[in-house]
Amino acid sequence: MAGQRMGMVIGLRPDKVAQYKSLHAAVWPDVLANITECNIRNYSIFLKEPENLLFSYWEYHGSDFAADAALMAGNPRVKEWWALTDPCQQKLSTGKDGEWWAAMEEVFHHD
């Protein structure tokens, strides 16, 4: 059974593209384990150059996304990971207050 599909977008600083790609070529195993523990599957991040837009897609298979998101945000290794990746990213000018990655509306899906 497929979970809730989620898509998000954010900018990537042009001078950080190589660093971001390098980091994601070897994501720390404990960060990957935490993603799974938080009921997230089929997680992908795509990059559109030269606009430097990151698009993330995943399926959420849990029953309380807010609780799982808080579990992830509270993980010390995830915090270390985000300390490396967040400076590479750039919030969209159209993003909502308090929103880092901007949520996207699903307008079409086909299995």
Put the structure in a nutshell.
The chain has 111 residues and is of the alpha+beta class. It is built from four helices and five strands.
Question: Could you explain how this protein is built, in words?
Answer:
This protein has one domain (4-91): Alpha-Beta Plaits (2-Layer Sandwich). Strand 2 (40-48) and strand 3 (53-60) form a beta hairpin. It is built from 4 helices and 5 strands; from the N terminus they run βααββααββ. The protein is an alpha+beta fold and 111 residues long.
CA-based gyration radius:
14 Å
C-alpha termini separation? 11 Å
The structure class reads alpha+beta
Q: Detail the poorly predicted runs.
A: none
Shape: globular
Spell out the blueprint of helices and strands:
Layout: E1 4-12, H1 17-24, H2 29-37, E2 40-48, E3 53-60, H3 65-73, H4 76-85, E4 89-90, E5 102-103
Antiparallel strand pairs: 1-3, 1-4, 1-5, 2-3
Tags for this model:
single chain; 111 residues; Alpha-Beta Plaits; 4 helices; globular
